[in-house]
Amino acid sequence: MCEDVKFNNDICSSSLTIEKDTDKDQVSKIPKNVDLKFGEIMSPHMLIVEWTEKKGWSAPKIQRYQDLKISPISSCLHYGITCFEGMKCYKTTSDKTLRLFRPDCNIARLKKSMKRLGMPGTDFEGKQLLKCIKELIRLDKDWVPYGEGYSLYIRPNVIANHQCLGLATPNSLLLYVITSPVGPYYPSGFKPIRLKSETKYVRAWTGGTGDVKVGGNYANTIKAAHIATKDGYDQVLWLFGKEKVITEVGAMNIFFVIKNSSTNRKEIITPSLGRGDVLPGVTRRSVIEITQKWGDIDVHEIDLSINDVSIASKSGRLLEAFATGTAAVITPISCIEYGGLNMNIPATGEVTRKLFQSLVDIQYGNILHEWSVTID
Amino acid sequence: MCEDVKFNNDICSSSLTIEKDTDKDQVSKIPKNVDLKFGEIMSPHMLIVEWTEKKGWSAPKIQRYQDLKISPISSCLHYGITCFEGMKCYKTTSDKTLRLFRPDCNIARLKKSMKRLGMPGTDFEGKQLLKCIKELIRLDKDWVPYGEGYSLYIRPNVIANHQCLGLATPNSLLLYVITSPVGPYYPSGFKPIRLKSETKYVRAWTGGTGDVKVGGNYANTIKAAHIATKDGYDQVLWLFGKEKVITEVGAMNIFFVIKNSSTNRKEIITPSLGRGDVLPGVTRRSVIEITQKWGDIDVHEIDLSINDVSIASKSGRLLEAFATGTAAVITPISCIEYGGLNMNIPATGEVTRKLFQSLVDIQYGNILHEWSVTID
Questions:
Q1: Do A157 and B209 touch (CB under 8 A)?
Q2: Which of A65, A71, A219 sits opposite B216 (nearest CB)?
Q3: Subunit contact B79:A218, Cβ cutoff 8 A
Q4: Which of A167, A184, A201 is the last residue of a domain?
Q5: How far apart are CA B251 and CA B149, in angstroms?
Q6: Which pLDDT does position B184 carry in this prediction?
Q7: What are phi and psi of B33, to 5 degrees?
């Protein structure tokens, strides 16, 4: 127990209090799988932990999902001092037990994002927070939908709550976790997406915040996404620098399956993290690690320009392309527009399908794997 | 009147409703000038206007300053979709009438920031919003402090209030305006600041959002500011690219007074806006326009690298340097650190003082000028 400690560096799961929602109508309003849209329906409870300069992390609390009361001068509302994570809880296909996918990776990245924003309170170890998140999911376990493609989306969010208009290291934070039952991104199987290369707006840059998951990375993408949609494409392909190096797609990482012109062997290529403008995605990392275990296809984290991809496409060596992220897991790419021309890509290819199935098998416990953490 | 219109493209000042704070203790708690710290004490009332996809801009409302109720999934809290302005209301030295400084510039920039973030609702004309802001100030007129250096800081803020975890063009916005009585940034006259050049973190980038006033531009500066302070400096000097071009200082624009090595004449130099990574500050623009009217000093909007400034400093041609912004108006710079070496700059120089006085004379109505707009 941590109650007697004057300043808590860590979140203390043993101090967790639970105030259940007593509105039975609300709690039993579990949506049907067919009604699930991404991120619109929220589960009945939320986890909330405050950090203050005086006391560090307060006792975590699970309470009814409810509006937050925020001061009009709170620094999250003016200076975009927010960072978040996206993770999922899956129901095991065989016995409906609950599983998280690599939650340690998400919590480690949340801390990294907080540090990049100069937030205090980053000394927490992560295990305690994970315990509290598990407790939240246990309480709303009936809200975890069952079936392949269905899951409970979990959104930890940290907002600065410094109450002064002067820009400063925040003296107060609010960490909260909300959950939302979600269905498959593409209910009728894979739906390949078409990308429009963005040449005016830039998502991230070296020395910026592109390698962490902070609010400002997303605010600056809405306009470009709107233009892409208006032009008949699904997502933006983000390029960087004079060489038009490919970095991300929408809010996902990108992979190419290309036949090497020298060896004639299939290779998987994804942008490197070296410049610091690409998010180190958990699904990205998992795809790399899975293919490394396969052993029959080389994986390279190297930079490709849009021109490199165009040359590979013209010579018939661009075999597949796909995007990765927590929400859609793996999304095949069927077309990339650049300079007014459409590059068509075969979709959905063998590697894309095999990787998707490998991830799904781990996530739903079809095969046992250390990445899949059960909630007892 | 606009009540009968189904969708309001503009904010309608004639529909403004006022709910006065009836708590007399609160309303009469006007702070003494000596107790004013920047952005900590807020005036009793706030202006609030909602935008929704269905109705456009709702009837504006002045109400008691109070916490906002915000949904935990509101997109401002996750994706940093926020933009704001900083402006000031001054009490005329001679007769205490109220004056705003170039409010049209701030409102135009607010719209530009909203557009860059892909926010809807940007068809409002600005005049109506300004009328509402004037009404807010009139109501709390006793909170505008009197005396040179004292003013009412006005903070219009626009936050996206889209209630879905999916990143999207927001279907709901909240525009609110709060005000705060503030004192001079440097109560005992000019206090020159010392800058630390930042070589790891980069504030903004071409194709990013550096030329608008959005939340994400500020969140990513806190860490560097913290390091600079720890190292004994007051603010960060932001550099760009391999050439280490000077862009901004802290959250202010920067100016140099340099003696031209060919003509031997004083010149004022400030970074150009061409790359799109420098905020077009209202004080910046005013300084340029004032010196252009003087006619005896050339003003150039061109890029200087830190090396250029170092060479000018070593040869004794770097005469003055100062930062500009709404909060501190003009702040002299006495030192720039780069690569572990300190470049000392004479402060506070003649041009710095003369520009400061010119601005203050307009702001406090000591001289009549079209930039100064009275509130009747």
A1: no
A2: A219
A3: yes
A4: A184
A5: 20
A6: 87
A7: -50, -40
pLDDT at A244 over 90: yes
Query: Per-residue pLDDT tens for A31-58?
Result: 999 999 888 999 999 999 999 999 999 9
The span from the CA of B97 to the CA of B65, in Å, is 24
State which residue of chain A sits closest to B223, comparing Cα positions.
A118
- The set of residues, in sequence order, having a beta carbon less than 8 Å from that of B319 and lying 6+ positions away, is B257, B258, B259, B266, B346, B349, B351
Q: Is residue A257 part of a domain?
A: yes
Q: Strands A151-160 and A82-84: what pairing?
A: antiparallel
Task: Indicate whether A206 belongs to any domain.
Answer: yes
Q: Are residues B223 and B267 in the same domain?
A: yes
Render pLDDT for A141-177 as a digit per residue (tens, 0 to 9): 999 999 999 999 999 999 999 999 999 999 999 999 9
Q: Which parts of B19-142 are beta strand (E)?
A: 45-52, 56-57, 61-64, 68-70, 82-84, 87-91, 98-101
- Residue in chain B lying closest to A223 (CA): B118
How confident is residue A359, by pLDDT bands cut at 50, 70 and 90?
very high
- As a whole number, the mean pLDDT across chain B is 96
Give the tens place of pLDDT for each residue, B272-328. 999 999 999 999 999 999 999 999 999 999 999 999 999 999 999 999 999 999 998
* Same domain, yes or no: B278 and B143: no
CATH code assigned at B293 = 3.20.10.10
b/e string for B74-89 if b means 16 or more Cβ within 10 A? bbbbbbbbbbbbbbbb
Residue A5 has pLDDT above 80, yes or no: no
Asked if residue A281 lies in contact with residue A325, where contact means CB atoms within 8 angstroms, the answer is yes
Q: Are B219 and A216 a contacting pair at CB < 8 A?
A: yes
DSSP 8-state secondary structure symbol assigned to residue B30? P
CB B43 within 8 A of CB B63: no
DSSP H or E run through A26: helix A24-27
CA distance A175 to chain B (A): 11
Hunting for tokens 């830190």 — which residue is that?
Answer: B306
Q: Which residues constitute the domain of residue B65?
A: 13-184
- pLDDT band, very low/low/confident/very high, at A3 (cuts 50, 70, 90): low
Based on the domain organization, do A305 and A338 belong to the same domain?
yes
Contact B214 A214 (CB under 8 A): no
pTM of the model: 0.97
Give me the mean pLDDT over the A206-212 stretch. 98
- At residue B250, φ and ψ (nearest 5 deg) are 55, -120
Q: Which of B362, B328, B101, B368 is nearest to B234 (CA)?
A: B328
Count of structural domains, chain B: 2
Residue from B62, B173, B218, B220 to probe the interface with A (highest A Cβ count within 10 Å): B220
Asked if residue A305 belongs to a domain, the reply is yes
Q: Which residue has the tokens 């708590």?
A: B23
Q: Quick one: which of A216, A201, A206 has its CA closest to A276?
A: A206
Cβ of B67 within 8 Å of Cβ of A69? The answer is yes
Chosen domain end from A147, A166, A184: A184
**Mutation for A interface: B42, B45, B64, B68, most A CBs within 10 A:** B68
Q: Residues B102-131, buried b or exposed e (16+ Cβ, 10 A)? A: bbebbbebbbebbebbbbbbbebebebbbb
Query: To 5 degrees, how large is the angle CA A331–CA A335–CA A339?
Result: 135
pLDDT of the residue at B268: 98
Contact yes or no for A118 and B223 at CB 8 A: yes
> Chain A residue with minimal CA distance to B198?
A207
